[in-house]
Design brief:
There is one protein chain. The chain is of the alpha/beta class and about 220 residues long. About 30% of the residues lie in helices and about 20% in strands. The strands form 2 sheets. Strands 6-5-4-7-8 form a 5-stranded mixed beta sheet, covered by helices on one side. The protein has a 3-stranded antiparallel beta sheet with strand order 2-1-3, sandwiched between helices. Helix 3 packs across helix 4 (about 165-170) and helix 3 (about 135-150) crosses helix 5 (about 185-200). Residues about 55-80 have low confidence and may be disordered.
């Protein structure tokens, strides 16, 4: 009888432990910088998931239909200068933080956004798709993170690679040029709710620019460029 196999996804669409390669592949296929590995038992997978992936495997460059390598992979020069995160973050980036990003197929087009906790790589919220623009998604993602942290009673920096969205949040106004139509009415209601939240709530959360040219893609990136 074939051994059971469990796959750990440290960095992918939704990090976690999966009981088949098909499930794992759905989380890592097309995801830039996906980090994953197979284990023969759930106990080993759980232990690995709660540890740094650099103990077990090198960062995967690309996923294909082939099965991932599951043995003998160790990084030639693992980043020993960071033990506070499973993600390959630059030293300047704080691990106790949230990164947000949006993706849009066309502009306007189907838009979605999400937030990722940098210490674990976990996707902590995801919204969409909904007809809109990338800038609107980036704006809503920051406000979503702000509101979620206030609700949970936590405060940590938010990284975004969108200068426009950061400025709009500071100005408490989403200055989109997207036409308001029956198709975009639901999105506009979300925008108005976000603007109202910004005007009615005080926060001290740092909103920081993710420097893509120096650090690569933001960890919340959807990998569709």
């Amino acid at each position: 009888m074939a051994k059971s196999k469990f796959y750990v996804v440290w960095h992918g669409v939704t990090p976690g432990i999966y009981a088949s390669w098909t499930e794992c592949k759905a989380q890592v296929n097309g995801c830039e910088g996906a980090i994953y590995k197979g284990f023969p038992t759930r106990e080993e997978a759980e232990e690995a998931y709660n540890s740094s992936p650099y103990i077990y495997i090198t960062r995967a460059k690309k996923t294909t239909d082939a099965q991932p390598r599951t043995t003998g992979d160790t990084p030639s020069s693992p980043p020993t200068n960071r033990t506070d995160t499973v993600l390959p973050l630059p030293l300047e980036v704080q691990a106790e933080a949230v990164a947000v990003d949006a993706a849009c197929s066309g502009n306007p087009g189907p838009m979605e956004y999400r937030g990722v906790y940098l210490r674990t790589g976990q996707v902590i919220f995801h919204f969409g798709p909904m007809h809109g623009t990338n800038n609107i998604g980036e704006f809503l993602a920051i406000v979503h993170a702000l509101a979620l942290m206030k609700q949970k009673g936590v405060n940590m920096p938010i990284y975004s690679d969108s200068r426009n969205a950061i400025l709009w949040v500071k100005q408490k106004k989403c200055k989109t040029k997207l036409e308001r139509t029956p198709r975009t009415e639901e999105l506009y209601q979300l925008i108005e709710r976000a603007e109202r939240w910004l005007k009615e709530n005080r926060y001290t959360t740092p909103i920081l620019k993710w420097e893509t040219t120096r650090w690569g893609e933001v960890p919340a990136d959807f990998g569709r460029k």
